[in-house]
Amino acid sequence: MSADRARIDPRGPRFGAGITAVLLLVDVFLALVGAGVVATVLLAAICALFAWGAFAGIERHPSGRLFRALIRPRLQPPTELEDAAPPTFAQGVGFVITLVGVALGAFGLPAGLAVFAAMAFVAAFLNSVFGYCLGCRLYVLLLRARVIRPA
User: Fold this and answer.
1) Which neighbouring-strand residues pair with 7?
2) CB atoms within 10 A of CB 125
3) I need a surface site. Which of 16, 61, 77, 87 has the fewest CB within 10 A?
4) pLDDT per residue over 107-133, tens digit each?
5) 8 bridge partner residues
């Protein structure tokens, strides 16, 4: 890995995933209780946040900035930093999944919205609670299969 690649505190994406998981859980609930329009709007906002992380980079994501400003100063320095490319790729995966959910909600299919929001919730929950990033694992698999190249 070259020295100019972005390196991040791995606790930042976990913090952001926790916020995202809570928002997605609320969204699934709203979709299931019949508040489809509200659920669609909320999922669109979450989708926009995923887009921000995917296209601007995980280090510029609002939850990352919040983590660096409010949380990281209260913690010990990280024992190691990680490459920003896998979590940034994971934001892209979240963007695609939530975009499908938003489209389904916009077409009046709140059950479809709930399914895709739930899929995104599972991924965010696994990352925030267990530090297991499904999108990061997908990134590594695609690198090994030579489907994508390192950033």
Assistant:
1) 83
2) 18
3) 77
4) 999 999 999 999 999 999 999 999 999
5) 82
| Alpha-carbon gap, residue 96 to 45, rounded angstroms | 13
Of 88, 117, 96, give the one whose Cα is nearest residue 23. Answer: 117
CB contact at 8 A, 48 and 91: no
Q: Which residue has the tokens 């995980």?
A: 58
pLDDT score for 2? 45
Structure confidence at residue 139 (pLDDT):
95
Comparing C-alpha atoms, which of 90, 86, 83 is closest to residue 2? 83
What does R_g of the chain's alpha carbons equal in angstroms? 16
Contacts of 81 (CB under 8 A, 6+ apart): 7, 8, 9, 10
Count of other CB atoms within 10 angstroms of residue 38:
15
Bridge partners for 83 per DSSP: 7
Q: Domain map of the chain by residue range?
A: 9-144
Which amino acid appears at position 144 of this protein?
A: R
